[in-house]
Amino acid sequence: MDCDEHEDPSDDKQIDKQLEENIQESKEESSQQKNENEASNLLEKEKHYFKEQKVIEVAKATFPNTSNQHYTKGVLFSPDGTCILSTINANGMLCYELPQDLYGKEEINDDREITLFKPVISIKSVGNIYDFCWYPFMSSYDAETCFWISSAQNEPIKMFDAFNGSFRCSYRAYDYADELEAALSLCFSPDGTCIYGGYKKSIKVFTTSVPGRDYDTINTKQPISCLAMNYYESNVLAAGSWNKTISLIDTRDYLTIDTLHGHKGGVTYLKYSSNGENLISGSRKDSNLLLWDMRNLSLPLYKFMRKVENNQKVYFDISTGGTWLASGDTRGIVHIWNLRDLNDDGFPKEIQFPLHQDSCSGVNIHPYLPILATSSGQFKFNNDGEENEFDEQEIIENSLVLWWFGNHIETSKSDAVLPLT
């Protein structure tokens, strides 16, 4: 009598498991290859940025109400590049849409008519906005991801819908007396699951999906004025403080890895490069913009010069591919450094554009188009030191402007801005 041989079911499970692992590895390799190809294409694209050494004004919004100190305090493109978010001193937040004709453009006419911006969302705020940031995976194709968070004087961290400006939820922190405490600075974790808030004596860690007053606390000895997460080394949080130092914190155990020194004033803004290798830091009343190599933190790798003569947070930004570093200054000049093209002294080459007549505190580079967003304005005093009364001869400019720095077609009526020589 013939006997049929039966395979062991456990062998089939083992084969299925191995097959799933092989498929997963293949997907990861494919995704890694795709990311490498995208990075390579982006680097090639960024080589041609500022090639013409001209910038063209393509859109503008102005805020003429100076009597109430309504000047801009920074500007941020959304991660998908469709929206521009700006804060107005003592007047809340404004959200704009990128002009439709700029999508997918490889070049424009240098006499293109300037688009006059009108906000699609306006959110009033009684107190000053301390900080704001977009959800890192914001996409206009997915309504659930379209939001930003902000912190304001005497208010909790709030989340706002980017489609209609509605209030979604809040994250509330309390001090030792159980009184509501406002966050001085904000940032998301690289995966968007956590919100980090910098406070006077601590950093609070909220879960994005759990609004309310549940949070972890990282105690600090100084106010945390700015925060930045390393998207490449996702467990490293950089925390700047008003005592001129930057702490690098491991988010797994909340221990301090290192402390960076080098600024002359309180640190106001931090930004990692997209590959996580560099950290850039700026401070108030300090003209040094420092670039740190994360592999050797003993001294800054570069010191960039920009004029900062007030207590403003003067923003800067680094392009997605890591080629270009841009910063404003209190004279209205925008500085552009090519981090991949060094001069004979081994220092990144610089271009300076006189884009504003007043302090340029906001600078942000579009994630994938050759467009630079800038904002201008600052707190004004009269000759007696009083606010709200100004010298008639003093130049006051409160504006939000978009500039094209890619290829363009020259015309006889060019409005391009040339760099300083």
TrEMBL record:
InterPro entries associated with the record: SWT21/TCAB1_mRNA_Telomere, WD40/YVTN_repeat-like_dom_sf, WD40_repeat_CS, WD40_repeat_dom_sf, WD40_rpt
WD repeat copies, ranges: 260-296
UniProt-recorded Gene Ontology molecular function terms: RNA binding
Disordered as annotated region, ranges: 1-39
Residue stretches of biased makeup (Basic and acidic residues): 11-39
GO CC annotations, alphabetized: Cajal body
Keywords linked to the UniProt accession: Repeat, WD repeat
Residue stretches of biased makeup (Acidic residues): 1-10
GO biological process entries: Cajal body organization
Pfam families reported for this sequence: WD40
Family classification: Belongs to the TCAB1 family.
The protein's name: WD repeat-containing protein 79
The species this protein was found in: Clunio marinus
Lineage, highest ranks first: Eukaryota, Metazoa, Ecdysozoa, Arthropoda, Hexapoda
